[in-house]
Amino acid sequence: MSYIDGIKEKAKIDKKTIVLPESTDKRVLIAAAHIMEEGIADIIMIGDEEKIMDGAGWLEVDLSGIKVVNPKTCDKFDEYANLLYETRKAKGMTEEKAREILLTDYLTFGVVMVKANDADGMVAGCCHATADTLRPALQILHTAPGVKLVSGFFILDVPDCTYGENGTFLFADCGLNQDPNAEELAAIADTSAKSFYQLVGAKPIIAMLSHSTKGSAKHALVDKVVEATRIAHEQYPSLTLDGELQLDAAIVPSVAKSKAPGSEVAGRANVLVFPNLDAGNIGYKLVQRLGKAEAYGPMLQGIAKPVNDLSRGCSWEDIVGVVALTAVQAQLV
Predict the structure, then answer these.
(1) pLDDT tens, 169-192?
(2) What does pTM read for this prediction?
(3) Domain range for residue 13?
(4) Are residues 281 and 307 in the same domain?
């Protein structure tokens, strides 16, 4: 069984309701049909039901069983508008503005449904920038208790790979924080460890990545990772974590023996924390495209309820996978 098939089976055990607000994208319509057919989650789509069903008919997919909510006719619209107003009034939100936003911004409408407990999570981003997905989630749902930083990660499932957890890795941060400082990198390591355990079910073994291994290079970029490793050991002592490590030293046992002898992480890492967004984003796309890995994300960690982003280059299969992961996250909230 593949990694994502295992996640789908977990999602089916305690079925959750996931909002897909981007109802005009054909990938979303195809994905919704497959999600319903496989019984992964219950789906809410936001928009005009006639248009959605016309699109489904044109694509020859079956959307029977999904719930469609049209903000213009929603019987809970006043309740949602008041909830948005009350949540954001300290930031200048007015009742009139709340109503206007909910009528025009389906992503915010979806997040408000999650806030109101009418849905368990939301997946969006196939035709919106990450900021469009993240902004309402942070403004309305806020961060989870005890979380210092919201960050993004990908689950990478690499075929025919003996590294990581049988070819499965968590890469962070690949989609959100552009240049995290040392304390932020340490916080990303902590939340990534929790996400890996929740979604993979194995012990997280965390490598703080750099172009240097144990002092092999001297540079301010290396210093940041060294300091992040120190902070992580101090603030999150239960983590199995080491750095700074080059990628090969982190995951290849033979290289680890020569570059980082004695490290409990080197050669065994399954959670890779990248020093900045450039490295993380380039790294995951190299593994996805050249290594033919399945890449699920960018998932978001640290928000009070699960809201996850999609790459605008995603396929409908990617959407199905991220919905399954979001449903499993929702089981653990």
Answers:
(1) 999 999 888 999 999 999 999 999
(2) 0.86
(3) 3-142+303-331
(4) no
